[in-house]
Write a structure and sequence with these properties.
Alpha-Beta Plaits; 41% helix; alpha+beta; three-stranded antiparallel β-sheet; 273 residues; disordered N terminus; 37% strand
Length: 273
């Protein structure tokens, strides 16, 4: 009888210990899973700030405008030459272009302001009818084009540059344009952005008055890139130097002012007064 009781007690103790171990393992596993899926307070705060339906904002577009006169002149001109051989055409072109560059520098244009913008050598063909009545392309020579870009801060010198170039051998004037230098462009852009933000702020304040709301912060600012004006005066012409020299003499070419605009989109946080 005692032996049976002792065996029963032992079996009971073993069962209790096994149950306790199993329960402990289950609790540890559940705790581990909770830790794996635990959401940080920082993430919860971020979600609340981003998706909080109680957040009140107002978005306003501000603009600013200024008139500015360009401070950079760009004249595109050059020499076009033709001859029976490529070497002969190139030699003629080089001699004329060197004369043009020399005359420009003697007139006060810096060599640093003169750059080659385009250079080409093209074959020239003529269509000749043969004895069978078919047209054949016959090589008759070569054309060399060497185009210069003169960029200077002497904004009123366009007419003089063309006069000097034509008088010394240039027979092409492709373009005269005016633009803002990088420094002036940056200063204008900075000023316009500041003024546009001020304009947006004033508009928002006026709109909030009847609503009894006030600005309490800025959520975002979107700056729309402004395009600086390019004052273009296309003058694509090829001509005989002697003919154009008299007609282009002291040609008046004026730049004029141009209006520049910048826009911003500002979103403000608002609250009751």
């Amino acid at each position: 009888m005692d032996t049976r009781i002792n065996i029963a007690v032992i079996i009971g103790v073993v069962f209790v210990l096994a149950f306790a171990v199993t329960l402990t393992q289950y609790e540890n596993q559940a705790k581990s899973q909770d830790e794996e899926f635990e959401i940080s307070e920082e993430l919860i705060t971020h979600w609340i700030e981003k998706y909080d339906p109680s957040e009140n904002t107002i978005s306003v577009t501000g603009s600013a405008t200024v008139s500015s006169e360009p401070d950079t002149l760009i004249v595109v001109l050059g020499v076009e030459s033709e001859a029976k051989t490529a070497n002969e055409s190139l030699s003629k072109n080089s001699n004329s272009l060197n004369s043009v560059i020399s005359s420009l520098t003697n007139s006060g244009i810096s060599k640093d302001d003169i750059q080659t913008s385009n250079f080409r050598i093209n074959p020239l063909y003529d269509s000749i009818k043969d004895s069978n009545g078919n047209y054949q392309q016959i090589l008759i020579g070569y054309r060399v084009s060497n185009i210069l870009s003169i960029q200077t801060d002497k904004i009123d010198s366009a007419g003089n540059i063309i006069d000097v170039a034509v008088s010394s051998g240039a027979n092409r004037v492709d373009n005269v344009s005016f633009q803002l230098s990088d420094d002036k462009s940056q200063k204008i852009s900075d000023s316009l952005i500041a003024n546009a933000i001020t304009d947006a702020t004033q508009k928002a304040k006026k709109a909030l008055v009847p609503l009894k709301q006030q600005i309490v912060g800025v959520k975002s600012v979107i700056i729309h890139d402004n395009v600086m004006p390019y004052f273009d005066s296309p003058m694509r012409s090829s001509f005989d130097g002697m003919v154009m020299e008299s007609s282009m003499k002291s040609a008046p070419i004026m730049s004029g002012d141009e209006e520049i605009r910048n826009n911003v989109r500002v979103t403000f946080y608002i609250a009751s007064e």
